[in-house]
Amino acid sequence: MVRQLVFDEPRPARPPRHLADLDAAGRASAIAELGLPAYRAKQLAQQYYGRLIADPRQMTDLPAAVRERVAEAMFPTLLTAAADVACDAGQTRKTLWRATDGTTVESVLMRYPQRNTVCISSQAGCGMACPFCATGQGGLRRNLSTAEILEQVRAGAAALRDDFGSGQRLSNVVFMGMGEPLANYARVLAAVQRIIAPPPHGFGISARSVTVSTVGLVPAIRTLADERLGVTLALSLHAPDDELRDTLVPVNTRWKVGEALAAARYYAETTGRRVSVEYALIRGVNDQAWRADLLGKRLHRALGPLVHVNLIPLNPTPGSAWDASPKPVEREFVRRVRSQGVSCTVRDTRGREISAACGQLAAAGGPAT
Ligand code: SF4
């Protein structure tokens, strides 16, 4: 039986206001409320986005007398690291964060030779109920605020700079942690805008290096396209036919494969960006040769060269009977998709042994094992 989809928060919570929740006008009025000169707004934003400092007590260009007041009013501690687990010889690190209301979320930092990526959460839990995903099993707890999302980015960037030696910069941000980003649209949009804006208005990460994933919330995909931010859209498809996708990705009962692909095409045409299609390959479930052919055909028809398929060997989740497809099946699947003229690769899955890979972020009070 398909579990009910949850689009609205069951228990809306309001984390305290933080500088990262505010745009330039909001920062200016917050500074005015504190009775500080207007130029302090830019100075604080420069410290936060440019120097990755979130504690005014460390801001030496701020008069000591006002640091405490600024800290209280604009820099509450939103996320506290409750646990850190590393694997891949220290190249992958998962952090379990505890928010002010006790809610837990996770982010994962991954170092590669040519890039450094942080995978962040946009919601605590998820209401999309995909049965193969650990996060989906716990349901939606609440949306994260813009600042809670951005704090994961800042912490990742600061960890790269401070813990891994000089010269390490955060280059990529992927919204593929807990939650359906487009179900928390306004806060995610504001977060993306501040990730790509240059300091002092944002972290200055290239829009091309930011990926927003979705299970296919069709109206929100079109709205995001119209923002013309230039970020990469990743559509988690997981099946090319409605019959199977209705069960693997329950939102498909609302927006069918054809509608999701039409929205992806609109995104690609509007932004000029190639769309990523994510496909978790599950043994005996969605890895048949005919499904590979159908996937290739449908994608070629809908998106032509404006699509790339990422096959993701399914990550085991506790208690699940589902498993990754055998390698020969995986190779044949890739071959068949490519033979339809669609580019397709198997994604390197980092962090399996610390339950940090896709579909494993459960945050059930501590790192999953
Ligand atoms: S796969 Fe993504 S959208 Fe589906 S339940 Fe998991 S976190 Fe939510």
UniProtKB/TrEMBL annotation:
Residues given in the record as [4Fe-4S] cluster binding sites: 126, 130, 133
Keywords linked to the UniProt accession: 4Fe-4S, Cytoplasm, Disulfide bond, Iron, Iron-sulfur, Metal-binding, Methyltransferase, rRNA processing, S-adenosyl-L-methionine, Transferase, tRNA processing
Co-factor remark: Binds 1 [4Fe-4S] cluster. The cluster is coordinated with 3 cysteines and an exchangeable S-adenosyl-L-methionine.
Necessary cofactors: [4Fe-4S] cluster
A Pfam family annotated for this UniProt entry: Radical_SAM
PROSITE patterns: RADICAL_SAM (PS51918)
One GO term (biological process): rRNA base methylation
Radical SAM core domain ranges (all copies): 112-352
Listed Gene3D superfamilies: 1.10.150.530, Aldolase class I
Enzyme Commission (EC) number: 2.1.1.192
Any one GO MF annotation of this record: 4 iron, 4 sulfur cluster binding
Signal sequence extent: none
Active site: 106 (proton acceptor), 358 (s-methylcysteine intermediate)
Keyword Nuclease: no
Top-level EC class as recorded in UniProt: transferase
Compartments, as annotated in UniProt: Cytoplasm
GO cellular component: cytoplasm
Domain of life: Bacteria
HAMAP family in the record: RNA_methyltr_RlmN (MF_01849)
Misc remark: Reaction proceeds by a ping-pong mechanism involving intermediate methylation of a conserved cysteine residue.
Family per record: Belongs to the radical SAM superfamily. RlmN family.
Designated name of the protein: Probable dual-specificity RNA methyltransferase RlmN
Organism annotation: Mycobacterium helveticum
